[in-house]
Design a protein that fits this description.
Strand content of chain B: under 5%
Number of strands of chain A: 20
Strand order of the largest sheet of chain A: 6-7-8-3-9-10
CATH topology of the largest domain in chain B: MetI-like fold
Number of helices of chain A: 21
Largest interface: A-B, 32 and 25 residues
Distance between the termini of chain B: 5 Å
Order of helices and strands of chain B: HHHHHHHHHHHH
Number of strands of chain B: 0
Shape of chain B: globular
Number of helices of chain B: 12
CATH superfamily of the largest domain in chain B: MetI-like
CATH superfamily of the domain at 9-261 in chain A: P-loop containing nucleotide triphosphate hydrolases
Oligomer: heterodimer
Strand content of chain A: 15-25%
CATH architecture of the domain at 9-261 in chain A: 3-Layer(aba) Sandwich
CATH class of the domain at 9-261 in chain A: Alpha Beta
Largest sheet of chain B: none
CATH class of the largest domain in chain B: Mainly Alpha
């Protein structure tokens, strides 16, 4: 790129103040970077690093509580940090556009997709309705949506997540802005969809020479799409450079730590033992949902069918699959949080799939779950100590015994036993997930189910929680059922892997076998879509 | 959809059954004898007994109920003890003022409450917001007859802008009709405004935090368009629900308001019927009110589909 090119975006010395009483003074502090035409710059950082705050400051969409205190933001040389609201409104969608993380909620549910794109055109152009419609159909075609006419008239809920994100992209790019800000645009999508969307963004921006500010926490995505990378921590720019350099030769310890925390996609050799007693076995397990109706024919959905799994003591079985594959349904059936409609579940020698709720009660202790979102899986109104001892006390332990157990478990999950009388909101996400693990372990289960238990965590925290889970498995000789959509995580923690698609297990074998030489077409496609599969983050930095 | 409507209409039957039993028993278990009221002050006990016999009040209660139900199923709502007309005629005569009052109140209330709620939400925490919310507390707490008399005093007596009382049929003199509707519908509307403004504010506030509002702003739309086109329509469902539930308030309020403003509607008919122990009239009016309540709420449920394409029955 020649020096004479004017950057589309230049952020100079930007600081944004947090409201008084926050854990630090600034959300963003003295950050400077540029985005050139045709360039994709990735802002990478963990939660709270200020990456989204930067994006919203550029768009002028910052929450009222946050105030920029210094610096300049130049959009093609024009300082937009001090521009009045009316000028910002003119610029939005014409010169700078933004797409968001959640395509499911980012579109207005009560307007058709066509109307929502049309709004952009009727606000910013003087085109007549026919010309607008033609332009919309053209952009829908460009973002590779099938049957643009039908999509035009569809409501968001009638489309898939990937299609909705394409609508967002179409809306953002319909007026050919010079800058596109993408805030975690693929985080909520399945890997195969993610791969398609990343490809689409790269194609469109290269074609138009659009500068892209791409915000992500996922180094796999960075490896796929970035030209340059800026690493942020606690609102400060740690380092910035070309993608290859940052990923393979990071200069700052924080960047090194982050990159080495990314789990490798190559499974570790774990020496599978075959001597453990079988803790759980399912036999043709299935769950069919059926909707009843007066006049219409009943509809049925097979959420899971013919699932045969077994887990021995001291072993981790992973179920991987995309959303809607039935992996969580299987986990919930095994824990009898929902009732399976077909098949058998053997917990040791006991068949629990068809057991009545009353008879099942004594067996509930034996299977415990850790859920995905540590922020929502604990009762905010009771102390974590009460949460942990509630289960054991239900099963007959005295309060003192249960508290003693809770204290020792807090040590097991490396938290201070004296913090048992605190409330969930006083802990960070990673700490809360440790508490959830302690809560599950307090029941002394035979089988621990982790349902996307590390998906909501930052990579560095994720690594610690994964290590903790593995240690606990070894120490207590637990059987673990690990549900995840993240192939990297599965590669690192699972002895065996079952790949699910459309409610069925399509491939099942040892992790090394499934990752090393996948046989099923779907499994192969899944691996091919994994972002940054050619970068072996874990290994590169360990060396 | 048809399936849904059919099921909901069928569900009206048990509701009416329960209401019928309840009203019937309540009237007969409370003290007061319609025969004594009809016979007047100077009647002998023989005369009263004769009237009672004629009205069928000497039969066992379950038999009286059976006869009443049988009549209703044939479309016969009985004859008023007091007005010497069939109840159906009586209701037909009295329904217009009540209907007019209800419609005017809805128009007044919604056209005030929804903008107030939206503005309060948009300016959350501002003086304007606090003012609107303060008014709504006031609207909830002051009884409607007090509001009615205050309005009469200020606008009819002191300022002389509007008539104090009375009703003119809409077909006779439209302006006269409107003039006489302003005060009653405002009186009755106050509590409704308080209710709907509050829920509109809460509902819009919630929607304003949604991701698609951020998207709308990122498109460069003006605040007005974001509020009216994107926020309000998404906030509609809870608002509609409360409007539906509030219909009960409206019917209850009509009784007081019609008395205060001398409107010859169903509300006043109910009061008169209760005072004279006119059993058939009370029973029928209450059944009618319950049908209206259930049907209005069914219509509200159906109207959700107009605002939210995700709702399908």
């Amino acid at each position: 790129m020649s020096v004479a090119v004017q950057p589309v975006l230049e952020v100079r010395n930007l600081s944004v103040a947090l409201p008084k009483g926050a854990d630090r003074e600034h959300a963003v502090e003295k950050v400077s970077f540029t985005v050139n035409p045709g360039e994709i710059v990735c802002l990478v950082g963990e939660s709270g690093s200020g990456k989204s705050v930067i994006a919203f400051t550029v768009m002028g969409l910052l929450a009222k509580a946050l105030k920029p205190t210094s610096g300049e933001i130049l959009l093609q040389g024009e300082n937009i940090l001090t521009a009045p609201e009316s000028r910002l409104r003119e610029l939005r969608c014409t010169r700078m556009s933004m797409i968001f993380q959640e395509p499911m909620t980012a579109l207005n549910p009560v307007m058709t997709c066509g109307e929502q794109i049309d709004e952009v055109l009727s606000t910013h152009t003087k085109l007549d309705p026919a010309a607008r419609k033609a332009k919309i159909i053209a952009i829908l075609t460009r973002v590779k949506l099938p049957e643009p006419e039908r999509i035009y008239a569809s409501f968001p809920h009638q489309l898939s997540g990937g299609q909705r994100q394409r609508i967002m992209i179409a809306m953002a790019l319909v007026l050919d802005p010079v800058l596109l800000i993408a805030d975690e645009p693929t985080t909520a999508l399945d890997v195969t969809t993610q791969a398609e969307i990343l490809k689409l963004i790269a194609e469109l921006q290269a074609g138009q020479g659009t500068g892209v500010l791409f915000i992500t926490h996922d180094f796999g995505v960075v490896a796929e799409i970035a030209h340059r990378v800026a690493v942020l921590r606690w609102g400060e720019l740690v380092e910035m450079g070309p993608m290859e350099q940052i990923l393979s030769r990071p200069s700052q310890p924080y960047t090194k730590m982050l990159i080495s925390s990314v789990p490798s996609i190559h499974p570790v050799h774990r020496g599978v033992r075959l001597d453990g007693a079988t803790v759980l076995r399912t036999d043709k397990l299935g769950k069919t949902y059926s909707g009843k109706s007066f006049f219409q024919k009943a509809r049925t959905v097979k959420a899971a069918a013919d699932v045969d799994l077994d887990i021995r003591r001291g072993e981790t079985l992973g179920i991987v699959g995309e959303s809607g594959s039935g992996k969580s349904t299987v986990a919930r059936c095994i824990a009898r949080l929902i009732d399976p409609t077909e098949g058998r579940i053997y917990l040791g020698d006991t068949e629990i799939a068809t057991m009545s709720a009353r008879k099942l009660r004594p067996h509930r202790r034996r299977v415990q779950i850790v859920f995905q979102d540590p922020y929502r899986s604990m009762n905010p109104r009771i102390t974590v100590g009460e949460s942990i001892i509630e289960g054991p006390m239900n099963f007959g332990l005295s309060r003192d015994e249960a508290l003693a157990r809770a204290r020792s478990l807090m040590e097991t999950v490396r938290l201070d036993p004296n913090s048992l009388d605190r409330y969930p909101h006083q802990f960070s996400g990673g700490q809360r997930q440790r508490i959830c693990i302690a809560r599950a372990l307090a029941m002394e289960p035979e089988l621990l189910i982790a349902d996307e238990a590390v998906s909501a965590l930052d990579v560095s925290v994720q690594k610690q929680v994964l290590q903790l889970l593995d240690e606990i498995r070894v120490r207590l000789n637990l059987a673990v059922l690990f549900i995840t959509h993240d192939l990297r995580v599965a590669a690192q923690i699972c002895d065996y892997v079952a790949v699910m698609s459309k409610g069925r297990v399509v491939e099942y074998g040892s992790a090394e076998q499934v990752f090393g030489s996948p046989k099923d077409e779907y499994t192969k496609a899944l691996f091919a879509a994994a972002p940054g599969r050619n970068w072996d983050f874990g290994k590169a930095s360990a060396a | 959809m048809l399936d849904f409507i059919a099921r909901r209409l069928i569900a009206i039957v048990p509701v009416l059954g329960v209401v019928a039993v309840f009203v019937f028993l309540m009237l007969r278990l409370t003290p007061g004898d319609p025969a004594a009221v009809i016979a007047g002050d100077n009647a002998t006990s023989d005369q009263i007994a004769m009237i009672r016999e004629k009205l069928g009040l000497t039969l066992p209660i379950w038999q009286q109920f059976g006869i009443w139900m049988g009549d209703i199923l044939q479309g016969n709502f009985g004859e008023s003890y007091f007005f010497k007309k069939t109840v159906a005629e009586l209701i037909a005569q009295r329904i217009e003022p009540t209907l007019a009052l209800a419609v005017c109140t809805l128009v007044v209330a919604l056209s005030a409450a929804i903008p107030l709620g939206v503005i309060a939400a948009y300016k959350q925490g501002s003086i304007l917001d606090r003012f609107v919310m303060g008014l709504s507390v006031l609207g909830f707490s002051v009884p409607s007859f007090v509001i009615g008399y205050c309005l009469i005093y200020v606008f009819a007596i002191e300022l002389g802008w509007l008539p104090v009382q009375g009703y003119i049929r809409i077909g006779v003199d439209f302006w006269g009709f409107l003039e006489r509707m302003v005060l009653p519908s405002t009186t009755l509307g106050v509590i409704y405004i308080a209710l709907v403004a509050r829920i509109t504010r809460a509902s819009v506030l919630e929607v304003l935090n949604e991701d698609y509002i951020r998207t709308a702003r990122a498109k460069g739309l003006s605040n007005r368009v974001v509020l009216m086109r994107h926020a309000l329509r998404n906030a509609a469902v809870p608002i509609l629900t409360v409007i539906g539930i509030g219909i009960a308030l409206l019917m209850g309020g009509a009784v007081v308001t019609e008395s205060v403003f001398g409107l010859p509607g169903l509300g006043r008919l109910t009061v008169e019927a209760v005072l004279s122990r006119d059993f058939p009239t009370i029973q029928t009016v209450i059944l009618l009110f319950s049908v209206v309540y259930v049907v209005v709420n069914l219509l509200i449920d159906i109207s959700y589909t107009l605002f939210d394409p995700r709702i399908r029955y």
